[in-house]
Amino acid sequence: MSEDSLKEDLKKVGIENDPSKRSASFIMIDDQPKVSFARGVEILSTKEALKRYGWLEEFSWKLVERQEGDFDGYFIRVPRGVKVEFPVEACLYLKRIKSQNVHNIVIVEENAELNLITGCTSERLSGVHYGISEFYVKRNAKLTFTMIHNWKEENEVLPKTGIKVEENGVFINNYILLSPVRYLKSYPTAYLDRNAKAILSSVVVGFENSEIDLGSRVYLNGENSSAEIVSRSISRGGKIVVRGHLIGNSENVKGHLECKGMIIKEGVIHAIPELEARNPNVDLSHEAAIGKIAEDEIFYLMTRGLSRDEAVSMLIRGFMEIDVKGLPEVLKREIDKAIELVERALI
Amino acid sequence: MDKGVMRIVNLGVEVNGKRILQNVNLYIQEGQTLALFGPNGSGKSTLLMAIAGHPNYKIYDGRIIFKGKDITDLPANERVKMGIGVSYQNPPKISGVKLRDIVKHCARIGGTEDKIEEYVKLLKMENLLDRDLNVGFSGGEVKRSELLQLLLMNPEFVMLDEPDSGVDLENVAVIGEAIKILLERDRKDRKKSGIIITHTGQILKYVDADYGVIMYKGRIACMGDPYDILKTVERFGYEECVRKCLRTL
After folding, report:
1. CA 20 to 30 Å from A323, out of A265, B61, B226, B242?
2. CB distance A305–B86 less than 8 Å?
3. Can you list the alpha helix ranges (DSSP code H) found in B111-198?
4. Alpha-carbon gap, residue A163 to B39, rounded angstroms
5. Where does the pLDDT of residue A71 fall: very low under 50, low under 70, confident under 90, or very high at 90 and above?
6. Domains observed in chain B
7. Three-class secondary structure of residue B181 per DSSP
8. How far apart are CA B131 and CA B137, in angstroms?
9. How many CB atoms sit inside 10 A of residue A80's CB?
10. Are A221 and A194 in contact (CB under 8 A)?
11. Cα separations (Å) of B156 from B66, B72, B87, B110, B181?
């Protein structure tokens, strides 16, 4: 594969490798991690970081169950009070090896802020990607994590993600999967302390022969913590299970789960929203809906001069549009770009 | 010279296998505006949808001739290109699609990019452009949004489905103003023509029409001066009005 096509592949998952647009850039091809540049934020390979910092053991395999195997990935730490201006990008690229074992640890210290864009993609048609991620958002800190996946037809993808958000912390998660994949299973789980807030959004397209089992789970453990789970799934011949689970464990917690699905031509979407209250003073709600593109909406746009295909494309795009409050403009653009690329393939 | 723009010939329309319109004939000339009256469910909107080209409104009989061309089988967007524009009584709410994007598109179609600002101001739509189309719009906002889109598309043949229903007085005046521009009602040499569906006739206080028609049980039942028809309907109701009409035929 040439340099250019690698660069193209990376662009599709939001990786620019451009110091004028990013604060730091990390790429791991197969099992070889490499930091291109970094400013304002510490970024190392996880293996190296574990060697260098004895204290990191306390953050390793604590939010996700330990797995056997040789893992490496990125370690990112934003020092106390630092608000990283440009996003940090990290890419996990499956090139030759059959199975890529990734372990990432991100620590955003008190009062710090980080936007992290992770792109995962593959040159191999087949191959397995295990991705372990542990995120620590300390008091008053904020982490916005946007993950764009672009796999190949025979890839199997099994990420596991745990997030701990301390008092007044904010965690925003955006997950975008717009390419075919053989099998993907993921169920990121967030644990919220007092006044902490989490928003987990996902936009997923399931093509023919794809099987996707995706969910988001939030434990509202601290008083006044709140969570919002928003998902949009489109099946175009694929099988998608969309899960969501809110657990209200404390006083005055608030959670909402919104799950919308659309089937184009054929496919399966199975929505499983779960609400679990373990305290009388919780406010948990959910709405789920699955349907097709409404003929009246297509016609309406056609009477505004759009062709049928243009109308369908505009409606699909609108369906995938998730309005996430607090999402930086630059990340919105990344998501829009990714959605633009898939639009044509859906009609 | 024949000045006929829209000819509806023996039109029969069915929806979901149910016949709604039978044997409808209309002839509208250049510069003419027709007021279409009728009770709820009489088939007024069905006629508009059929002329606009909605695939669920199946034409089982007759033809629609626009500017001398048979458009009975033409897709809706092709009809738009020929100059047909329609505003809805209850347009769909579309999440994720911004009014601004539709407005831009309509201006491109109508070649009216330089008028966007003026019309947005006229219809007081400044604060709604970045909202999802019709989502959470009030009754008046929905109608104003429809008229903004039509003004920018600048159609030759204008169809308005109850532009005055569910709208307060202040909004009716604004909407009336927009319709006057759309149909060139202030111009002696006007070319534009169209159909206004009105249940209450309220809008006719702001825009005049050249003649009126009552649609009753899927047929054209009366034809005449729109203000006479309106007065008779207000006094006697639709059923009685139609009976009187049929007696005088």
Report:
1. A265
2. no
3. 116-122, 139-153, 169-182
4. 61
5. very high
6. 4-248 (3.40.50.300)
7. helix
8. 9
9. 13
10. no
11. 11, 18, 14, 10, 12
- Cα atoms in the Cβ-side hemisphere of radius 13 Å centred on B195: 29
Among candidates B52, B96, B132 on the partner chain, residue whose Cβ is nearest the Cβ of A303: B52
Q: Is B62 on the interface with A (CB under 8 A)?
A: no
Taking the CA of residue B132 and the nearest CA in chain A, the distance in Å comes to 9
Nearest residue on chain B to A299, alpha-carbon basis: B54
pLDDT tens for each residue of chain B, 249 residues long: 567 899 999 999 999 999 999 999 999 999 999 999 999 999 999 999 999 999 999 999 999 999 999 999 999 999 999 999 999 999 999 988 999 999 999 999 999 999 999 999 999 999 999 999 999 999 999 999 999 999 999 999 999 999 998 888 888 999 999 999 999 998 888 999 999 999 888 899 889 999 999 999 999 988 899 999 999 888 888 888 888 877 665
> Which residues does chain B have within 8 Å of residue A318's beta carbon, measured at their own beta carbons?
94-97, 132
Closest CA to A112 of A53, A191, A170, A25: A170
Domain extent listing, chain A: 3-292, 293-347
Question: What does the block give as tokens for B163?
Answer: 């532009």
- CA pair distance B6, B29, nearest whole angstrom: 7
Token pair, residue B243, equals 């009976």
Q: How far apart are CA A187 and CA A209, in angstroms?
A: 21
The two three-digit tokens of residue B242, written as one number: 């139609």
Rg (CA), chain A: 20
**DSSP β-ladder status, B33-37 and B193-197:** parallel
Q: Which residues, other chains included, contact A308 with Cβ-Cβ below 8 Å and sequence gap of 6+?
A: A298, A302, B75, B77
A230 strand-pairing partners: A201, A258
Å from A292 to nearest chain B CA?
A: 13
B 136-195: CB under 8 A from A: 149, 153
CA angle A216, A12, A148 (to 5 degrees): 10
Residues in chain A closer than 8 A to B77 (CB atoms): 302-303, 305-308
pLDDT of residue A346: 74
pLDDT tens digits along A50-69:
999 999 999 999 999 999 89
Tokens 């807030």 — which residue?
A197
Q: What's B76's DSSP letter?
A: H
A295–B85 CB contact, under 8 Å: no
Give me chain A's average pLDDT, please.
91
Alpha-carbon distance values, A289 to A272, A273, A317, B93 (Å)? 11, 11, 17, 16
Residue the block writes with tokens 């204008």? B158
